[in-house]
């Protein structure tokens, strides 16, 4: 039978999922009996309900089926005439080498961290088969891609869980070049080793550069001292330790207090010492950022990684002095924003979340979980630290750029470029080719972010998502999303299947993931041009799995 679902799987009690029963998109759960309580009761499973069919009462009617004719027509209109890239991946338990003599047991795609990057050509088709050798069900979401809805990889909403021992064949047109990545959308599996870059190459690449450096940032806890992301989530759901200050909302952009500066913060600390079990607490106290607020993170991670390596045994990228290098930077973390700089170099930002921007120079960047930036640098002569500070947490990740002789940087190296304020997406303007055409919104969807650290009850509009949630939109509309953060914590918000213009209208950079500060408001406009059922959620994996996600549904 299908494994017990997480909250994400419960979303499957939709008319669309029911209608898809027996179709190819539900084939991933081989051997299911299809029996179980009805969805919406709090004990049923969305994929079980879909398997045995059910009636329209199982979920709201009048919405596009993820495998329906509207989705098929949209896929056909993409006219993917380019090459087909075929890939086979296996998700399995394995031993990963983090460097410095540190190995951990975790789950990964193959035996490397990150998983081997997948490269496709814009205008072509990706055909990737995922075999699940994990002890539980999994899935695969293509973060940032505007793709056909039944390939989006959200269990119970757009596909069934891929059962342990099963497999699923993803196949879809890839239309837009850029830097993307993929990861599970099942529970907190993303906070293990199940992620990899997805690079969509432009057959008419306008940028000129000599080398390309894919940089994946991560926070790591799985397999360290017996810890797992599921155990971390269980601890977070318990009440915070007595005496912990939960943080206060501040006006976005104002400093944290008299001691705050634009530079690195003091180390945050775990909330409690090891108890009778000997397992340390993973709750974080004092994660205070001058930008993100007094609750910059929830989790005390033992390691922060660049391309799967710890800071005292970093990965090394080699080039020649004067080389023009394109860095594709991905934050694959579960709970950590990173402030990144390359010592001795200026960063020229060319893209964010896959879309080009008017080139902007900066000494450092701030990346939320799920965000991507492409930058160009002209390499100096020597050995240089690429340092990614865990924002508000006081620790850092490190990689090295080597173009000549010199002493290698240490784990504690802090480039002076980190002392100034980092560039963020709201300071960028879209390139002309990426700007959203000016248009008044046809519909405004308002979502209020609610919850607290003490209760760990993250949600939209005061209630965690339920199987029948739908915020209706219609094909052809210009939709305005208005997110209002009523919590004392920042949130990285991600929209599936679309990109939006920051700030509304046509003036802001095109994004699919964006930071919303404590007490702040985020306005984002997008064109409803990709029919289906699409999730929007906080990309802190512990917040989303606790309830801060919902669905935008295209009405028939």
> What can be said about the biggest beta sheet?
6 strands, mixed
The tally of helices reads 6
Ends apart, CA distance between termini: 33 Å
Number of separate strands: 32
> Can you tell me the overall shape?
globular
Oligomer: single chain
Strand content: 25-35%
Helix content: under 10%
User: How does the helix and strand content classify structurally?
Assistant: mainly beta
If strands are numbered along the chain, what order do they take across the biggest sheet? 12-9-14-19-16-17
Mean pLDDT comes to: 85
Low-confidence stretches: 1-59, 241-266, 272-277
Rg of Cα set? 22 Å
Short description:
This protein has 556 residues and is mostly beta strands.
Your description of this structure?
This protein is mainly beta. Helix content is 7%, strand content 34%. The protein is built from 6 helices and 32 strands. It starts with 6 loop residues before the first helix and ends with a strand.
Protein traits:
556 residues; 6-stranded mixed sheet; 7% helix; disordered N terminus
Could you give the topology of this structure?
Blueprint (H helix, E strand, L loop, with lengths): L6 H4 L4 H5 L26 H6 L17 H9 L6 E16 L2 E8 L8 E4 L2 E9 L8 E3 L23 E8 L3 E6 L12 E6 L9 E10 L8 H9 L31 E2 L13 E2 L17 E4 L9 E3 L5 E8 L6 E5 L4 E6 L2 E8 L2 E3 L4 E7 L4 E8 L5 E7 L40 E8 L8 E2 L10 E3 L4 E8 L5 E5 L4 E3 L7 E2 L1 E4 L4 E7 L5 E6 L2 H6 L2 E6 L2
Parallel strand pairs: 1-4, 3-8, 9-14, 13-21, 22-25, 24-32
Antiparallel strand pairs: 1-2, 4-6, 5-7, 7-8, 9-12, 10-11, 14-19, 15-18, 15-20, 16-17, 16-19, 20-21, 22-23, 25-30, 26-29, 26-31, 27-28, 27-30, 31-32
